[in-house]
Amino acid sequence: MLERMLERWRVDLSVQRGPRQQGSKQPAERVHVVVERPDGTPLIRLPAPRWLVSVAVGVLGLVLVAGGAWYRDYLLLRSHRAEFTALQSRLADQQRLLEGFQRRVASVRAEVDGWRALHDRIWQPFGPDMGQERRSNAIGGRAAPKDVDGDEGGAVADEIERLAAVVTEEGQSLRSLERFLGKASRMLAALPSRWPVRGPVNSEFGRRSSPWLDDSVEVHSGLDIGALRGTPVIAPAPGTVIYAGQHAEYGVTLIIDHGNDIKTLYGHLTRVGVQSEQKVERGQVVAFTGNTGRSSGPHLHYEIQVKGSPVNPRSYLWD
Hints:
Elements: H1 2-8, E1 10-20, E2 27-36, E3 42-49, H2 50-123, H3 152-189, E4 201-203, E5 206-209, E6 217-220, E7 223-226, E8 232-234, E9 239-247, E10 251-259, E11 262-272, E12 279-280, E13 285-289, E14 299-306, E15 309-311
Antiparallel strand pairs: 1-2, 2-3, 4-7, 5-6, 7-14, 8-13, 9-10, 9-12, 10-11, 11-13, 11-14, 14-15
């Protein structure tokens, strides 16, 4: 469009000397702004003093320079605005990530606190001297001043340090518990916790009516477990056979020593599958049920003795 205007119009500046003014040696100069058609026909002819044209050209130059500077600043601000928008988006993403991380740290902290309560419940049956030494609530010292200018990153870093310290402490407690349970598991494995045979309990441990005498009460020293003749009897725990033979009341009888002053007795057997002084393992078949001795039918008399005295086998049975 500008090219068309330039083709259509032509602007000339011509300087003409006017009449000499009074008191001046040089004639006055005036500038004529002439707008012509391409064929040379003048359309507009504006006379103006030369100083006015000079001032107008200077003002126009200043306007152009100021406009160029303003446009350059505009482009720079526009670029900075785009960068600021991108930074705002990144900052929002980092803020969401930080908040999620803080929630995760709080969740882990709550889980670790749950470990402490679990440790206390595990240690409680064994007494206060068995567990890990606990810190008391007796503390002192001057509190450090709070950092009012600190950012959330510092708070998260402090929380991570505290959480790491708690995890280290709980790790030591877990290792202590692992060592204790390792010893306890060996002790538990030595206890006669398995049923020697599966079947209905025909007579419980303790006082009962005598099956042999009317209106008579006796103390039954074990469990009478109903089982068909020839049912395999398994060892409820590892031990050593200390007796395998006949008994006046129990008929064919087997006694196993499990250590820690604990023995098990099996009566009314058909036969015994092990020998005296033989070591047996947990779950090994050691005998077979029958109806020998003082018995009214096929079953197993199972008895647990602690320091020579019979105890209720149900106190040991959980498997």
